[in-house]
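FAQ

Q: What does a record look like?
A: Structure on top, sequence underneath. For example:
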């Protein structure tokens, strides 16, 4: 649990004094209270969003199933949402990968929403060129690792913003779906913190602002 000390707002942007609001601009430094017993985690996680290459533009328009397959093709797997959270928060359990207060310049976040043409993005008849042109029009992705302050205490890059990242839904025990998004995307309105989780999209979802990174078990 963190304690919001500045800019607490509900999901409808109304001000609130709740200690864990939907949106928060700053949390009490050093306050990270464990409400249950902590569980040790031992895993490896890619430094960058897929394709895990410094300077590459992260992949999007990939379903959870396709992301899972691409990770497994590299003898890796999709991260559990709990693993993703730990890799972002670090040993101090930071609310943001880079600290206790939201910084709109540290990570690729807060860009104005642009109306997508879902008739193209979801079309079964549109050509790959048409779909890519629409993705390029909407995209505000930046190359992986190009924002050096957007780095977690464990050295993992771009965990807040850039693209929403597929994970396996461990925290909510696979309900309502096996899939879960972590990190938020570049569009204004996303929470872009380490702990929030989005479980309202099924495994077949794919979109222009959604990507992933891979994890693996230690050898």
């Amino acid at each position: 649990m963190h304690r919001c000390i500045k800019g607490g707002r509900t999901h409808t942007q109304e001000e609130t004094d709740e200690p864990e609001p939907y949106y928060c601009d700053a949390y009490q430094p050093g306050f990270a209270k464990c409400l249950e017993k902590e569980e040790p985690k031992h895993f490896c996680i890619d430094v960058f969003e897929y394709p895990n290459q410094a300077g590459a533009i992260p992949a999007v328009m990939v379903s959870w199933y396709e992301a899972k397959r691409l990770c497994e093709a590299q003898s890796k797997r999709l991260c559990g949402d709990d693993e993703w959270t730990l890799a972002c928060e670090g040993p101090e359990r930071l609310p943001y990968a880079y600290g206790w207060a939201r910084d709109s310049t540290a990570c690729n976040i807060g860009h104005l929403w642009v109306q997508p043409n879902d008739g193209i993005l979801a079309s079964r008849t549109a050509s790959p060129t048409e779909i890519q042109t629409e993705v390029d029009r909407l995209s505000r992705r930046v190359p992986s690792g190009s924002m050096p302050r957007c780095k977690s205490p464990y050295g993992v890059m771009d965990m807040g913003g850039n693209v929403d990242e597929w994970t396996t839904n461990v925290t909510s025990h696979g309900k309502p779906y096996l899939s879960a998004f972590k990190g938020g995307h570049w569009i204004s309105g996303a929470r872009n913190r380490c702990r929030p989780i989005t479980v309202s999209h099924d495994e077949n979802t794919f979109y222009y602002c959604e990507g992933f990174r891979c994890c693996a078990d230690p050898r």
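Q: Is there anything notable about this one?
A: The chain has two domains: 1-38, 43-219.
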